[in-house]
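Progress note, sequence design subtask.
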């Protein structure tokens, strides 16, 4: 979000970060199938050092939440949302705040 004397606006900025989440997951049934609820901290590492000639920080820390379902056969589908806490902008005189937000749908198999 950016604001000055005349304008305040928010715009998405495509950045490339590699996220490493640590998930604490609760399942509704004891054998592991059923509804999955979870969340935890995450650390993200940038694979871009610049966005349109503006330097960005290479490390971000945040938290994520997870909602999903796992079948008795081990297949799962999850929705995840990550909210970054660090201002990754290093060009603060013109772009004062850039924070990472990430949403994903994942499909997997537990073996």
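Output:
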């Amino acid at each position: 979000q950016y604001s000055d004397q005349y304008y305040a606006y928010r715009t998405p900025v495509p950045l490339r970060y590699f996220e490493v989440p640590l998930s604490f997951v609760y399942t509704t049934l004891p054998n592991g199938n059923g509804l999955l609820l979870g969340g935890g901290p995450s650390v993200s590492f940038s694979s871009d050092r610049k966005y349109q000639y503006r330097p960005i920080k290479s490390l971000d820390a945040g938290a994520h939440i997870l909602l999903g379902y796992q079948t008795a056969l081990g297949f799962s589908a999850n929705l995840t949302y990550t909210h970054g806490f660090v201002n990754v902008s290093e060009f603060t005189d013109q772009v004062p705040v850039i924070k990472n937000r990430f949403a994903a749908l994942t499909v997997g198999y537990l073996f």
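The longest strand covers residues 34-46. Work on this subtask will continue into the next period as scheduled.
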